[in-house]
Amino acid sequence: DVRGETFTIVGVTPPGFTGVDLEVVDVWLPIETARYLFADSDTWRSHTGNWWLKTVARVPEGTSLAAAEAEAKRLHVNVHRDQIDQGRYFPVDRIHVTLASVIAARGPGASSESSVARWLLGVSLVVLLIACANVANLFLARGTRRRREVAVRLALGVSRGRL
Questions:
Q1: Which of 30-34, 83-87, 106-110, 159-163 ranks highest by mean pLDDT?
Q2: How far apart are CA 42 and CA 156, in angstroms?
Q3: N or C: which end of the chain has fewer CB within 10 A?
Q4: Distance between CA atoms of residues 68 and 56, nearest Å
Q5: Residue 7, Cβ neighbours under 10 Å: how many?
Q6: What is the pLDDT of residue 110?
Q7: CA distance 33 to 48
Q8: How far apart are CA 94 and CA 57, in angstroms?
Q9: Dihedral of alpha carbons 129, 131, 132, 133, sign
Q10: Residue 34 and residue 43: Cα distance in Å, rounded?
Q11: For the chain, what is the largest distance between any 2 Cα atoms, rounded to a whole number of angstroms?
């Protein structure tokens, strides 16, 4: 049940699957279900600025990039022929198809999220190493400072337990 509408479950993704983004996804719904979930559900069809809309398709093994791109362009033209003819939709030459792993961070080029994460990991490791070196230096300085005191106490016969 999503916003009062009942849908049939047609599949379950494996644990950890996030799609094309690295954010956690609670549910995947076909784009056609928008008419049931949103008041102005058909405005996305005529609006050309749908930057949020990403299409994911499973491509059969052995399909070339050129064939997948040609099929995507053919489908795009068939679905949006009226809007393309009126100049109200993305032109066909702006369609870009990338054959890659579903998760962007594992695709052909690293995503900005994974680049930032790697950079932060590197900086964190450097800070941790500096902190460890500082603590080791403090222990060394304390031991050097107390060296004479410990030697005198041992000479006077203090047991190691009391020292």
A1: 159-163
A2: 92
A3: N
A4: 12
A5: 13
A6: 57
A7: 19
A8: 18
A9: positive
A10: 10
A11: 101
Work out the average pLDDT over 65-75: 82
Residue type, 46: S
C-alpha 151/C-alpha 41 separation (Å) is 83
**pLDDT score for 22:** 66
Type of residue found at 136: A
Phi, psi angles (nearest 5°) of residue 29: -125, 145
Would you state the structure tokens that stand for residue 43, as one six-digit string?
């405005």
Backbone angles phi, psi at 2, to 5 degrees: -125, 115
Q: Among all chains, which residue has been given the structure tokens 């410990």?
A: 150
Q: Which residue has the tokens 């064939």?
A: 67
Which pLDDT does position 144 carry in this prediction? 92
CA-based Rg of the chain, rounded to a whole angstrom? 31
Structure tokens at 74: 């053919």
Closest CA to 19 of 8, 29, 9, 34: 29
CA distance 140 to 127: 20
Residues near 153 by beta carbon (within 8 Å), at least 6 away in sequence: 163
